[in-house]
Design goal:
- There is one protein chain.
- The strands form five sheets. A two-stranded antiparallel sheet has the order 1-5.
- The relative contact order is 0.18.
- The protein is mainly alpha-helical and about 475 residues long.
- Helix 2 packs across helix 9 and helix 7 crosses helix 9.
- Helix content is about 25%, strand content about 5%.
């Protein structure tokens, strides 16, 4: 069980370790414009005309969803947010969570129904979050560790909104109880820059890369999560649980915003309703009044891009986002010398970080979409494998082949401009995030020991390098 007291202790301990080690300093979130958020498509080399689809997807990604009687209907009956870009905004549209959490204002602004309250773990300047309960709860209020849950517990409902029709009452999950029991974990949004390249890597390249990774002296293993339908490697999400950008987008539309679509065409009960065999209350069905799926294709629309359903538009936007460019690091008002960044890259490899956070993965397959996705060697700083991260990171949530302490190697490209770090946003500093890789059962323990044995100069070089990505 993930106890909140233990979670708090881990965070406090990591922060203390980061401070103790602080003969080195985290340069912090880099604010200069590095060009992040651009498209990978070259306007002069787009034979199939996909630039228009990227632009269309970018527009849809920013649309605010409503329940009914307006544009963009289908929100709810349960939701975590009301637009894609509200969660994916830092440092540009398509990224991770921003400095201001929009979820903190949903109750006061009327986005959430009038009976809603803001959970204690949602704060104005904290991470944008989704919540999960690792286990179901017995009728006597105790945690049933023999009954895994792990499903997303949407934070808010639309019940009682003026546009929610017959949906007058719909309870939020019992977050206070879950917090008291230590039966709650969090996830923050993953950045989507460069994901078209990730999608276009064939399995054989990933498998060959895995064999290279396994030849290490750091005690690092790693395996892949796989699609239950065709057995191929999945690669999107914190546990690499989603196969494609289409599935990633369709699941998010249904789970995070409550909008049914061509991939997920039914309204989603919360995990407790499903477990009890109840399903969603009938008065909260078909609130848009348009039938299902609420997001469908538009065959009579023009131009061509408008014919697509929203999920396809979202997928195209993410697919054609360029990787986040590296950039200059500013520390205490001055640019860190290039030689320091280069030395940090060497330290990164020498102590074992690159065994999981692989700098190179390519080349990609030939793309049938745009030339910019074809035969590209790119630098995500990930192997897209799942690894045991030990008790410190364990959330007791399984997804596909990924167990309770296994997570996909988080791609480090773009790290320089991220605010909240780790899968649950627990850290704000790179040193603390590094230390959190070390706990009982973690494959990273030897690497973190190597990091702790570095001198202060080497640690600073490594941290500067990471903020350059």
């Amino acid at each position: 069980m993930v106890r909140l007291s233990r979670f708090a202790a881990l965070v406090a301990g990591a922060a203390a370790l980061g401070t103790m080690a602080l003969a080195q300093q985290d340069p912090g979130v880099q604010t200069a414009n590095r060009g992040t958020g651009a498209t990978i498509i070259s306007p002069s080399n787009d034979p199939n005309g996909f630039t228009a689809f990227f632009t269309d997807g970018l527009s849809r990604f920013q649309e605010v969803e409503n329940v009914s009687n307006a544009d963009n209907v289908g929100l709810g009956p349960r939701f975590n947010s009301n637009s894609c870009s509200s969660c994916h905004i830092q440092p540009a549209i398509g990224g991770s969570g921003g400095p201001v959490n929009p979820q903190a204002s949903f109750v006061s602004s009327g986005v959430a129904g009038p009976g809603n309250t803001t959970p204690s773990f949602i704060t104005p300047n904290g991470p944008t979050r989704e919540a999960r309960f690792p286990f179901f709860v017995n009728s006597n209020g105790s945690v049933n560790t023999s009954a895994p849950n792990g499903g997303v517990e949407d934070l808010f409902t639309v019940a009682g909104r003026s546009d929610a029709g017959t949906c007058k009452t719909l309870a939020q999950p019992n977050f206070a109880q879950a917090e008291a029991l230590g039966n709650i974990i969090f996830r923050i949004p993953t950045p989507t820059f460069g994901t078209g390249l990730v999608e276009n890597v064939d399995d054989s390249t990933l498998l060959a890369n895995q064999q290279t990774n396994l030849r290490n002296s750091f005690g690092i293993g790693g395996t892949f999560n796989r699609n239950g339908n065709d057995g191929t490697i999945t690669r999107f999400g914190w546990k690499a649980q989603n196969k494609s950008l289409h599935i990633f987008a369709g699941e998010a539309y249904n789970v995070e915003m409550g909008i049914t679509n061509l991939l997920f065409p039914q309204e989603r009960p919360n995990p407790e309703e499903e477990n009890q065999g109840l399903g969603l209350v009938s008065t909260c069905l078909n609130l848009s009044g348009n039938g299902y799926p609420e997001d469908a294709s538009n065959p009579t629309s023009t131009p061509n891009s408008a014919v697509l359903d929203d999920v396809s538009g979202f997928a195209n936007f993410m697919r054609f986002l360029a990787p986040p460019p590296p950039g200059t690091v500013i520390l205490n008002g001055s640019a860190v010398p290039a030689a320091t960044i280069s030395a940090g890259a060497a330290v990164f490899s020498s102590i074992g970080c690159a065994t999981c956070h692989n700098p190179n993965l390519g080349p990609t397959q030939v793309s049938n979409l745009v030339p910019a996705l074809s035969k590209v060697t790119f630098h995500p700083y990930s192997d897209f494998e799942i690894h045991h991260m030990g008790t410190g990171f364990a959330d007791n949530v399984g997804q596909g082949a990924a167990g309770g302490d296994q997570f996909r190697t988080a791609p480090l490209w773009g790290l320089g401009q991220r605010i909240f770090l780790d899968h649950d946003g627990r850290d704000l500093s790179v040193p603390a995030a590094i230390q959190n890789h070390m706990s009982n059962g973690s494959e990273a323990n030897t690497v973190i020991t190597n990091y702790n044995n570095l001198n202060s100069t080497q640690k600073q070089q490594l941290i500067d390098f990471l903020r350059s990505l």
